[in-house]
Fold:
Amino acid sequence: MSLTDWLIDLALIGLVVLQLRGRRLTLRTLLLPVALVGWAGVQYLHAIPTGGGDLELIVPATLLGLALGVGAGVLSRVHRTAEGAVVVRATIAAAVLWVVGVGCRLAFQVYATHGGGPAIGRFSVEHHLDPGAWTAAILLMAFGEVIARTAIVGWRALGTRRQPTGPRVLSA
Structure:
């Protein structure tokens, strides 16, 4: 596991932790997580193996990432300030879901590179997994989580932008 891998994982955690207090949502802050996992995909994901038991690992991992991302997106609060800025605030539950996803991937990477490689290799042989299936599963889980959360927060931000600013006037 390289320093860059550590920095990407820690940056993904930090982005949501920073939103616990509320943070102005810009196109840059919305798309930064997508850029980070996109970079990782270009660096590490060269093919998605589909033989043996590969899809039995990859599909559930991807679905888990999507579920965590949907949960983190739905549980984040998006509102518009009186000045018209769109702000996103991650709730504790949203941050926990996000950190669970990133943390599980980080823990697996640490395990795989610090002594767990032989056990993963034996498991892979027993379950007919291509070594690239682990990379695909981890990265597609990350893509699912990031893209789902980004899409939900972005969609909610668009809806919030259409709302008028200032106090609401009730008509009789």
